Structure formats: C-alpha cells, structure tokens
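FAQ: What does the model actually see?

It sees only this:
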Amino acid sequence: MTTPDPVTAPELQQEIERTRERLGETVEQLAAKADVKALARAKAADVKAQAQAKAAEMKASAAEMSAQLKRNEMVQRNWPLALTTAGILLMGAALVWRRRKS
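And it is asked to produce this:
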C-alpha cells in the first residue's frame, strides 16, 4: 500500500481559505433566506409591479373599448344618412332607366 503525499503547510492554508469562502457564502445564503423583512419587501414589490402592469393593461383595454364604442355610435348615427343617400341614388337610377326605356 502507498501512503498519501503529506500535505504542506501552504497547501493546507489554501484549503482552509477555500473552505472559509464556501462557508461564508453558505452563511450569506442562509441569512438571506432567514431575512423575513427583505423577503416580504421583495414579494410586496413584485405584487405591486404586477398590479401596476395589470392596471395599465386594463386602462389600455378600456381605452380601446371606448374608441370602438365611439366608432359604433358614429356608424349607427350615419345609417339613416346612408339609407337616405342610397334611396335617392336608387330613385335617380330608376328615373334614368325609365327615361332611356321610353
């Protein structure tokens, strides 16, 4: 059997430093998970952003519906005029047709 190479002091010191760094990162991650206030603030900010986006979407939808309603009202108001114009054109065409026929 072979024995492992002995670890030198500088190598051991480097390994200790790497372990400390990993441990520090782990502690920071755990502290972040345990920070209830920060998590609540982040969640509140997220919910607020979603609500603002939804409100903007609803406002745009309402504006589009309002514009569509106005267009529909204009078309409904213009129907009598369009029908009257069509009637006059039909009567004129009928008169022209009668004159040419006679």
